[in-house]
């Protein structure tokens, strides 16, 4: 399964940063989160703006349902990150997804 168009999944040994936009499909993002969990990765969703945070939260809720069928529960730890962009440094919301 390829990455959804609005989600960037860089290769990483344990932690994967998923850049979420307001146009991201929560179901597709949930599938990416679930597969990362199955592969023993720790996905970190990074969202800038209310719409992107909304899609990220929805994806976490949907992913929790996906992994529940395998007896896994997910915990989400929110945080902040400073991101340097074209207009200088801005704050992003990060959501670390932890399997329990």
Largest sheet: 5 strands, mixed
Using DSSP, what is the number of strands?
5
CATH class bucket: Alpha Beta
What fraction of residues sit in β-strands? 35-45%
Strand line-up across the major sheet: 1-2-3-5-4
- The count of domains is 1
Radius of gyration based on Cα positions: 13 Å
Task: Write the element-wise H/E pattern from the N-terminal end onward.
Answer: EEHEHEE
Structure description:
The structure is a single chain. A hairpin with a 6-residue loop joins strand 1 (7-8) and strand 2. The chain has one domain (7-99): Alba-like domain (Translation Initiation Factor IF3, 2-Layer Sandwich). The chain has a five-stranded mixed sheet with strand order 1-2-3-5-4. It has helices spanning 26-38, 50-68, and strands spanning 7-8, 15-20, 42-47, 74-85, 88-99. The model has no long low-confidence stretch (mean pLDDT 90). 32% of the residues lie in helices and 38% in strands. The protein is built from two helices and five strands.
Task: Kindly summarize this structure in a few lines.
The chain has helices spanning 26-38, 50-68; strands at residues 7-8, 15-20, 42-47, 74-85, 88-99. It is an alpha+beta fold and 100 residues long.
Task: Write a concise keyword list for the protein shown above.
single chain, 100 residues, alpha+beta, Translation Initiation Factor IF3, 5-stranded mixed beta sheet, 5 strands, 32% helix, 38% strand
Secondary structure layout plus pairing:
Elements (H helix, E strand, L loop, with lengths): L6 E2 L6 E6 L5 H13 L3 E6 L2 H19 L5 E12 L2 E12 L1
Parallel strand pairs: 2-3
Antiparallel strand pairs: 1-2, 3-5, 4-5
Helix pairs in contact: 1-2
């Amino acid at each position: 399964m390829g990455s959804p168009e609005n989600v960037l999944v860089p290769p990483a040994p344990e932690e994967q940063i998923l850049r979420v936009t307001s146009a991201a499909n929560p179901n597709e993002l949930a599938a990416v989160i679930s597969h990362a969990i199955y592969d023993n990765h720790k996905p970190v969703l990074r969202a800038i703006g209310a719409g992107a945070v909304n899609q990220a939260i929805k994806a976490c809720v949907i992913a929790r349902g996906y992994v529940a069928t395998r007896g896994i529960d997910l915990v989400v730890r929110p945080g902040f990150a400073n991101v340097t962009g074209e207009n200088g440094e801005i704050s992003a919301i990060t959501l670390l997804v932890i399997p329990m």
